[in-house]
Amino acid sequence: MATAMVCQPTKEQPQCGGSIAGRSYKPQNRAMSHANLMNNYFNPNSKQDRAGRPGFSPHQKVTVALRMMAYGLPADSMDEIHGMFESTCLDTLQQLCDTIVQVYKDEYLRELNQEDLNRLIRKAEDHGFPGMIGSLDCMHWDWKNCPTGWQ
Questions:
Q1: In terms of DSSP bridges, do strands 24-25 and 5-6 run parallel, antiparallel, or are they unpaired?
Q2: pTM > 0.85: yes or no
């Protein structure tokens, strides 16, 4: 196990281990970490489908799910491009969404509390949008160049 070292600024190298001189630096073996990640999660031979054939790699599954979300593509369009049936695409998208919710729900997917609400109101007011909470469409905002079709 590597021990943390404190970097001492020098003329040749004013700082190390980050952008703040004197911060702790812990050497990392990035190449080994990457190899482990790829082997553990992205190894195409690691999983087989029910018929015993190699399954879709995580790269393929994530790509399909992200394309469906980013471009609004229907699941049945993935068969032509990625060779993945609609049901597999939908299962993959559901698994990705469930994973994202599970990982980030405590920090980002929670009910607003009063402190959050106050911070958002102040931020909106600082940017010239008073009373923005509850009116996300900005219909109360005067827009001098508003297209006539929207007036």
A1: antiparallel
A2: no
